[in-house]
Amino acid sequence: MSIMDGQGASKLKQLLQTIPPGFLVDMAWMTRHAISRQSVSGYVKQGWLERLRQGLYRRPFTTGASREAATGWKIPLLSAQWIMGHGFHVGGTSALGLHGHSHYLQLGGDAAIYLYGSDIPTWLVELQTDARFVRRSDALFGEQPTGVEDSEFSLSDGPDVELTLSPWRWPIRMSSAERAILEALDELPKNESFHTLDMAFESLVNLRPKLLTMLLAQCQSVKVKRLFFVYADKHAHAWRKHIDMSLIDMGRGDRALAALGRLHPTYRITVPADLLPQEAAHGA
To answer: What is the pTM of this model?
Structure first.
């Protein structure tokens, strides 16, 4: 029986209805949908699927797809989140960039897209795209999804992308700015700079204090919570005075963090001198 006969034709129709051109599926997804390896091999031979690597396939792009769509990181990520159903989100400085703080998301070259969660597929981290996927654990908040949202975005900046007009329009599951800044603070001092996050805080004028209070109460890192208030006090945005600190466990004892740093008089963590209150920075 030809794979286009009977059951094979029905499964192929289901496949094509589920997967937009250019999007990816893995063999585990095929198996869940009762599509055999033999059928997959037949789809590849007929040109209905392209094999990207062992166990990973792409529905071919239609004619005229832009290079950004073909080599970009967004389509593989959306495929993992919405087609294959993996439970992870984009966070940290990557989410800050996608929320419009473009200078914190350096696309091109060795750009890093930070992925948070315990269900990040290995193929996504290993896939060659125009950015580098970096795996992060969900230890900061455990399995609490607070502040993880579905955010609309443009698939490409180019005018020739057919996908922007297609019936498949999925958002990126990623951290809100409130959660993203806490995830970014967790990268200090090894993987992020105090100066970069200082600039980030300067731009975060519209955060939601109720969500921030909830996230800070759930946050498992005393370091992150203390650093957050070091920066929040320095920049003194309007939302700062609406955070209920009585709900937040700040831990006990001094914390050493920055080499050659100075101990913050309120939050008892070592930071660069320019993050100290003005009177402490100029003191002895």
So the answer is: 0.88
